[in-house]
Design goal:
single chain, 145 residues, mainly alpha
Amino acid sequence: MSEEDKELELLKAKRLLEMQKNISQKQKIEEMKTKKQAAVPSMSPREFVVKQLGYRGLEVLENAEAQFPSETKMVIEKLAELIQSGEVTEIIDGGKLLALFRSVGIRVKMQTSIKVEKDGKLVSWSDKLKGESDAGDKGESQETT
């Protein structure tokens, strides 16, 4: 064998070793992906979404499920897919979730209340108005007697 043949054989051996390493690395990466995918389906789509919810998000989700069960299920499934794929990474608070439902045509009704400060305490707006009207009624009745 000539010197060139030996060098060629060495180069071929090196290249073969590199290719084997690349193949084994690709196989390891694929195995890791399949393990992750196998672990991921153990959670329901709703659980994925709930993990991503922030302030008052669960409240909005529960209201939506109570008012529109089938539509909410579809939205949750799609949102879970987006979370799993990494397209949605931010925390979804109640306002964002409500805006999402409204953007797809689901008008989720939320219980709201307005509170105002009266004598250092928070009272509902209706109680404050009732208190003022009661005081006004008492003042009128005292004037007439």
